[in-house]
Amino acid sequence: MAYDKIADRHFIYYNQVIKPALVGLTGPWISGGIEFNWPQHHRPSTFEAVDFEIGEGADGSKIVYINEVEKMFHTKAMVAFTLYPGRAYIEINATLYNRSALPQTFLWWANPAVKVNDFYQSVFPSDVNAVFDHGKRDVSDFPIATGTYYKVNYAPGTDISFYKNIPVPTSYMAVNSAYDFVGGYEHDTGAGLLHVADHHVSPGKKQWTWGHSDFGQAWDRNLTDEDGPYIELMTGMYTDNQPDFSWIMPYESKTFSQYFLPYRELGIVKNATKDLLLALEAQDDQLTIKLFATAKQSGLQLMLTYNGESRLNTTVDLDPENIFNVSIPFTENYEQDKVAVHIKNGNGHTVLSFYLAK
Question: pTM here?
Answer without folding.
Answer: 0.95
